[in-house]
Automatic annotation (TrEMBL), chain B:
InterPro entries: DUF5819 (IPR043857)
Transmembrane segments: 12-36
Keyword Transmembrane: yes
Protein name: Uncharacterized protein
Species whose genome carries this gene: Psychromicrobium lacuslunae
Length: 453, 254
């Protein structure tokens, strides 16, 4: 940036005399000798001055435009190449997506043969697949084995195991392609029972191919931290032990672009959802959520449905609220206070869909992706808090001390008194402050450092 | 930003960046066109290029519950003729949808098994609605004798105008008959010789009447279909079906 700044003025000053000034200078004596009176000379000077003025404005204008463009370019380049963004957010996306996949498989396990296997041959999927995917050989595994109970079950269990590896982030670069192929093969083998959550899930997995979602909170992370570069070892060994696959800038580039594409995807989904809804009478009149909640299919908790639809204003608030939050979501991401509101609102929107409408896996998929919008700082402090209170609880359990003063500790996590265990008389705040540092202060400190390193 | 040491950029990195950014921009633009409500803006991508790019990997549709959310239930009832001591007895109707829905009601993590008959009934009703009045008269008749009853039904339906509607209908009738056969076998055993199914749609109580006590339920929009022969799809496992369905059915009887 500094080098370019100094370069630019030099260049332009070099140009200036060559192009503009000499031309005017050569004109000046000519016109002066031809007219020879003060008035025309003054007029000439005026025009000349105006000409210079316009030329300089022109130059400044383009100078500013150029500078802005250059700064913009530098910012974009630096944003894309210098370090991976939202590492914790994307790691949480990976974890929640993994839990979603595993959960879906787990809660469909007892009925797998009834709805996806030989018990569902009546739907003729086994003869002619309805989705495009089973027709692509790599995605045809579950389709091909669906009539064989034991092989189907084996593949199903294998997929569950891979979902676990995906969640914990073990050898992610290898596990992701395997998981993607198996998952798409499984979910697309039965077209009738799918929902939009399946589409979103698949699309998010595709984007994860380019990102580094196992860079934090994963087994890969642990291995990479332990790894120390020893140049004498063979290339393949270094890569296997945790050296980044690409040049750091290229790795950042793909990672950050994946984030951009994922953000665009989510924003389009929300905004188009709002636009589609806004075109319908029930949404305009504000009672749209009443109808699905009153059906058997999408009102899976009839008593709760009645509770939420009993009072008209609540129905309107939820119906209009969901359109407004979907519509405004991208803009609300731009500043921190509105982002917090947007994320809280959209999460409660999804929790509502998950519980009231019986679509937990759709909702969890959306929540997983929305996690990229929570800053790494926030994730770290959440992590530190959880670790902190876990350690404290363990310490306290070891010393067999009853859980007292719990409410006080939530407030000041850092200063919290681990040593109420060692100091039974720590009820008075003064005593606590005096004794706390000695025994326990370094413990929480370590955890904070862990989290931020 | 970054006044101090600005990282060096290799040429290859810059070139990769330009290509990757262009690809990402194209993907974002294509997704925008695909996800947003259809508009003349789609004409900027010539021919079928957009579809070819988006399908199948980025296939999606976000007009969920829009412009109008679903406001009715689809139900599938099944009954059968069962051989009992040489005589044929007609069973009561079993509400297969109610049986499956019981798997997802008051369940935080409902299995997909619970929505099969609803999906099936909804698809069937759509194809039945599309038939002409003449077709509907034929469909209401019983077709169950011999092994060629489907061919006879098919030929009869195609002998009327709008024969082009018949394949879609016959396809969904196959599925729903095969499903009903499974339900009948699960509930009444192997002595089943014919099945009949009924599909209806029933709207929810209008919003303004939702809290009025003693509301009459909305009228059932019934698709009338006659008796049918049994259909067992290739590879169908009666056991895999009945073990789940019968268990849910028995739970509901208690």
């Amino acid at each position: 940036m500094t080098t370019s700044k100094t370069e630019r003025p030099e260049k332009s000053t070099a140009k200036k005399p060559a192009n503009v000034a000499p031309a005017k200078v050569s004109q000046q004596p000519e016109s002066a000798s031809a007219a020879g009176n003060g008035f025309s000379e003054g007029l000439g000077n005026l025009f000349r001055g105006l000409g210079l003025f316009i030329a300089s404005l022109w130059k400044q204008f383009f100078g500013v435009i150029g500078k802005v463009l250059k700064q913009g370019y530098d910012f974009v380049e630096s944003w894309l190449l210098d370090g991976k963004k939202s590492l914790y957010g994307l790691a949480m996306t990976r974890i929640v997506l993994g839990i979603t996949g595993f959960g879906l498989l787990f809660f469909n396990f007892n009925t797998r043969l009834y709805s996806f296997g030989a018990g569902a041959a009546w739907n003729l999927e086994a003869m002619v697949a309805k989705s495009d995917f089973p027709k692509i050989w790599i995605f045809s595994l579950f389709h091909d084995v669906m009539l064989n109970d034991s092989v189907y079950t084996l593949c199903y269990l294998l997929l569950m195991a891979v979902a676990v590896l995906f969640t914990i982030g073990w050898r992610f670069k290898f596990v992701l392609p395997v998981y993607f192929v198996l998952w798409v093969s499984f979910i697309e083998a039965n077209d009738m029972l799918g929902d939009q959550g399946d589409n979103m899930y698949r699309i998010a997995l595709i984007f994860l191919f380019f990102a580094d979602p196992a860079a934090r909170i994963s087994l890969d992370w642990r291995r990479r931290r332990k790894y120390q570069a020893k140049p004498e070892t063979a290339w393949i060994v270094r890569k296997w032990k945790g050296e980044p696959l690409f040049d750091a800038q290229i790795g950042s580039l793909f990672h950050n672009l994946a984030l951009v594409v994922l953000t665009a995807q989510v924003c389009f989904v929300y905004v188009s959802g709002a636009l589609y809804k806004a075109g319908g009478k029930p949404w305009q009149n504000g009672w749209a959520i009443y109808s699905p909640l009153s059906t058997d299919r999408f009102g899976t908790w009839p008593a709760l449905s009645d509770l939420f639809t009993f009072w008209g204003p609540v129905v309107v608030a939820i119906s209009w609220g969901s359109i407004i939050i979907q519509m405004c979501f991208p803009l609300m991401l731009l500043t921190r206070p509105t982002r917090i509101v947007a994320l809280l609102a959209i999460m409660s929107f999804h929790v509502g869909i998950a519980v009231l409408m019986g679509l937990p896996w759709f909702s969890l998929t959306m929540i997983a992706i929305d996690f990229i919008f929570i800053r790494d700082r926030t994730w770290k402090s959440i992590g530190a808090r959880i670790r902190d209170s876990f350690r404290k609880s363990m310490l306290r359990a070891r010393s067999k001390e009853p859980l007292e003063g719990e409410a006080d500790e939530v407030g000041n996590a850092d200063e919290a008194s681990v040593d109420t265990a060692t100091e039974p008389n720590a009820e008075k705040p003064t005593a606590e402050k005096a004794t706390a540092p000695k025994a326990a202060k370094d413990k929480p400190k370590v955890t904070v450092q862990d989290a931020s390193s | 930003m970054a006044e101090a040491a600005k990282p060096a950029r290799k040429k290859i990195v810059r070139a990769t960046m330009i290509v990757a950014v262009l690809l990402a921009a194209w993907h974002i633009f294509a997704s925008f066109l695909w996800i947003a409500p259809p508009s003349p803006l789609r004409q900027v991508v010539p021919g079928t290029a957009l579809t070819n790019y988006m399908i199948p990997f980025f296939g999606q549709s976000w007009s969920v519950f829009a412009p109008e959310p679903i406001n009715g239930d689809y139900t599938l009832l099944v009954r059968a003729k069962v051989d009992k001591d040489g005589k044929q007895e007609t069973t009561d109707w079993v509400n297969a949808t109610k049986v499956e829905i019981s798997m997802i009601h008051y369940n935080l993590f409902p299995p997909r098994a619970g929505i099969q008959s609803t999906e099936l009934a909804s698809e069937f009703k759509g194809n039945w609605d599309a038939l002409t009045a003449d077709h509907k008269v034929i469909v209401k008749l019983g077709y169950f004798n011999g092994t060629d009853w489907r061919n006879r039904l098919d030929a009869k339906l195609k002998s009327y105008p709008s024969a082009n509607l018949v394949p879609a209908y016959m396809g969904s009738e196959y599925m729903i008959t095969a499903y009903s056969t499974q339900v009948a076998k699960a509930v009444w055993g192997d002595k089943v010789s014919q099945v009949q199914f009924q599909v209806y749609r029933q709207n929810v109580t209008p919003f303004e009447n939702r809290n009025t006590p003693g509301q009459e339920p909305q009228p059932k929009q019934i698709a009338d279909v006659g008796w049918r022969g049994l259909i067992t799809a290739p590879g169908q496992s009666d056991e895999d079906f009945s073990s789940v369905f019968k268990a849910a059915y028995d739970r509901l009887q208690k």
